[in-house]
Protein 1
Amino acid sequence: MIRHIIFDCFGTLIDTGNNSIKAVEQMLFNIGVNLDAQKFYEDWKAKKRQKMNASVFLNEKTLFEVSLSETFAQYGIEADASKEVEPMIHSLFAERLVFSDVYETLEKLENENIDIAIGSTTDTDSLLYYLELNKLSFSHIYTSENMQVYKPDINFYKTILSKSGWLANDCLFVGDSYMDDVYGPQKVGMKTVLLDRKALYKDSELMPQPDFVIHSLLELENIMK
């Protein structure tokens, strides 16, 4: 029986929009480089992701700077990453609002006496900023920074279980990333929901399969029934 739901935050509850691309466009403009912002961002994000698996934990702001330095080197750009990373850091505190299905979904779950948590790959201060901005309140908040580990490392999910005292088979993990919110949680025995708002995934490509695939959080009500 599902007693606890752990939500990913960004892309699941809060719409990140195109703030990251705007930040890259501003940065490239600042250094006078004419490159495709989307391609540059994808390369930058890939290097950041690689750094998440390093033995020494780095918070998200530091990861952005370190991986930007490597991306500059990849493109042969001579620039100070510690300075030019600022537009991206500022974007972490931009106006990002909840998706339209969030408030109704959370209210219904609370009425069913379901424990609700956040499990997010982010720095704690930026997550708390967006929760306050959107008037969201959770009694259980877990970030990569306060647990010193990133998704999909199995210790991210084990630490949530340890800190909460919840049993894995009583938990449902809901998120928009297959690796982070399905593959990772399933390794510790949690049930999973892949929120595929833009219909990006094909069932045949997902191994192991999520327990459920939805396209709106409002569909959670049927799952809980």
Note: The chain has a mean pLDDT of 95.
Protein 2
Amino acid sequence: MAPFIFFTLATFALKYIFNPLMKRPVELSFKQIINSVLYPASNPLGEMWFIITLFIIFLFYPVFKWSLQWNKCIVSVWITALLLNLFFPKDIEILCFSQVAYYLVYFYSGLLFLKFDAYKYADTKCFFVVSLMFFILFNILVLPGIFLNFTGIAFSVALCLLLSHYWIRLFSSFRDYTFQIFLMGLFFQMGIRFLYAKLDTELLYWPLYVLSILLALYMPVLISKLIQKIESSFICQCFGL
């Protein structure tokens, strides 16, 4: 919650200063700040819904950890999470309860992936080809979204594992800072977007597009490493370190 509060307030301040340039202007009031916590969709930094969702899911982590000791519990919890994904109301916005119910099954499946060392099976060319074929197939067929999501996750994992064999250091420079990239990357992409709008030339679209991705990946890593050198626990908590 520390990064959530810090980045919410920081974004309020930035958007208030540059309100005329914003697609979603803010009103710096106590009511809007409270609404940004209770209803993250109204947060000035839209991606904060994910932080609240992750926070509430982590409140269930002791239950998940306990359930992993017995196979019967694993099956029961996974089926319960699946039913919540499929049938929980989709329009409960307060504290992202609908999103929590939707993503529980993916979070718990990730714990199972780790518990049973499933990466050993995913780290093969055969699994990569099969996951790609199913991912393409489920994009074509009209099936419940959960099929597409799981095959998309499987394909992404297989692709990353395959690439790591040929480009060993591909992910090593930022693998420990993915949360910070999530928190800060958008600011650099917004900066490039403003620059593109100011320059007003389509010739620069693709160079600036690539630049926005690189800046969003590596600037948060650089900032995080500088913050860690300060050795302030309070500042580190604000940035999720």
Note: The chain has a mean pLDDT of 87.
